[in-house]
């Protein structure tokens, strides 16, 4: 199972890349800025349901109020879970191929 999801934005939409290990996810996250128009957001851990912000977003998160941090965290975790569910449904249906890396 792909425990980790690297979340990034492209054309104002969220996307993810599934990874088996934390090390693999960190490596992928470092590659995101190398692809034009893609902005790294962070890494979601499906087992613990926790999210680690990319360094470029961590400062924004740290400056938010306690309530704001809760809202940001809840929002990005909901997005990550929805992306993972979508891909799981595509794979089960057999009609769609999983998007390629940085689709």
- The tally of domains stands at 1
* Beta-strand residue percentage: 25-35%
Q: Helix/strand/pairing class, anyone? A: alpha+beta
So what's the overall shape? globular
The biggest beta sheet reads: 4 strands, antiparallel
Indicate the percent of residues in helices. 40-55%
Which parts are unreliable, with pLDDT below 50 for 5 consecutive residues or more? Answer: 93-98
List keywords for this structure.
single chain, about 100 residues, alpha+beta, 4-stranded antiparallel beta sheet, 3 helices, about 45% helix, globular
If you had to describe this structure to a student in words, what would you say it looks like?
With 103 residues, the protein is α+β, with helices and mostly antiparallel strands. The protein has one domain. 46% of the residues lie in helices and 25% in strands. The protein has helices spanning 22-31, 55-63, 66-93; strands at 4-10, 13-19, 38-45, 50-53. It has a four-stranded antiparallel β-sheet with strand order 2-1-3-4, sandwiched between helices. The protein is globular. Mean pLDDT is 88; it is low at 93-98.
Summarize this structure briefly.
This protein is α+β, with helices and mostly antiparallel strands. Helices cover 46% and strands 25% of the residues.
């Amino acid at each position: 199972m792909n425990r980790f999801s690297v979340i990034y934005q492209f054309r104002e939409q969220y996307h993810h890349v599934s990874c088996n290990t934390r090390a693999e996810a960190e490596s992928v996250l470092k590659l995101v800025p190398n692809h034009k128009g893609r902005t790294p957001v962070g890494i979601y851990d499906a087992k613990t349901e926790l999210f680690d912000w990319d360094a470029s977003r961590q400062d924004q998160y740290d400056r938010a109020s306690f309530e704001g941090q809760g809202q940001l965290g809840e929002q990005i975790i909901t997005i990550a879970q929805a992306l993972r569910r979508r891909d799981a449904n595509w794979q089960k249906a057999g009609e769609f191929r999983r998007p390629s890396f940085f689709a």
